[in-house]
Amino acid sequence: MLDNKTILVLAPHTDDGELGAGASIAKWKEQGSRVVYVAFSTCQDSVPGGWPSNILEQEVRAATGALGITADDLRILDYRVRRFSERRQDILDDMLKLRSELNPDVILVPSGTDLHQDHSTVHVEALRAFKQKTILSYELPWNNIVFTTSFFSIIEERHLEAKAAALNCYNSQKGRPYFNRDFLRSQLTFRGVQVGSPLAEVFEIVRAVSY
Q: Which of 17, 86, 89, 164 has the fewest CB atoms inside 10 Å of its own CB, making it the most exposed?
């Protein structure tokens, strides 16, 4: 159902889209869809010590490239990490511009149950901007208390490898447990078992529109 579509990935911070949907992005690109990735913040205020302040901008360019997203389809904005709620209208305005420019078929957002304040803001403003479109939430289990597994994307080994390669570009983040390769495989294996497949990524259907 996502072949040859325009898919808009809304990532509050660099790496959120890859963590939540990287394998599916690789699959959808392979199937002919256009994927536009928007990172709202490069998190300069929380870059680990010893790294350049713009390291996450460099890393997201490499990571999205590893998934097949073209340089023209990567947009990097400059909102301050953990301060999104102070700029809700600006974020909504940016989304409305994206809607007008791209007319996307599907929008990927963090879950409405995501506990991170920036993720929550992006979710809510995306509902306002794209309420007439198909919206899927991606899973970030370390931030979700509950998550409705209503859309399963069956993936192949090569898509898992593409996701792993993308996340491997984030050298500054490798100390985080959810960047561990064994965790990535176990998460996708677990979701695959739920639908009788070796591997899957799971999404929550917020709204589905069929033409």
A: 89
CATH class of 6-207: alpha beta
Contact indicator for 207, 131 with CB cutoff of 8 Å: yes
8 Å CB contact between 42 and 57: yes
Place of tokens 């409305």: 96
Which residue has 């989304």 as its token pair?
95
Dig out the tokens for 139 from the structure: 């899973």
Amino acid identity of residue 206, one-letter, is V
Domains of the chain, residue spans: 6-207
Other residues' Cβ atoms within 10 Å of the Cβ of residue 152:
17
pLDDT 10s digits, 23-42: 999 999 999 999 999 999 99
Residue 160, C-beta contacts closer than 8 angstroms, at least 6 positions apart? 23, 184, 185, 188, 199
- Beta-bridge partner residues of 9: 37, 108
